[in-house]
Amino acid sequence: MDIRYHIDPDTGLPHIFGHGVSCEEVEQILAAPWETRRGDRDSQVLLGRTLGGRLLRVIVVPDQDGQGVFVVTAFDLAGKPLKAFRRRQRKRGRS
What we know:
5-stranded mixed beta sheet
């Protein structure tokens, strides 16, 4: 799968770095998301846990050909979205 990242124009680095998220963590979520939801426009919101235990939200736009994705952003789940995610996971038997 071809993975492209939104580049922050100020730093020239992937935008996710500003949120303390690594490319490896994003790839872990892309490989095995716990939830996939539709986002705005053509985006998808992926929620999942990294191998290190972090709960992340990754926002991607699939390529037209279906062979890759453009990662818009990724960040830790916190606050009410985290509570809602944990509640949904308990209902599904995940922890």
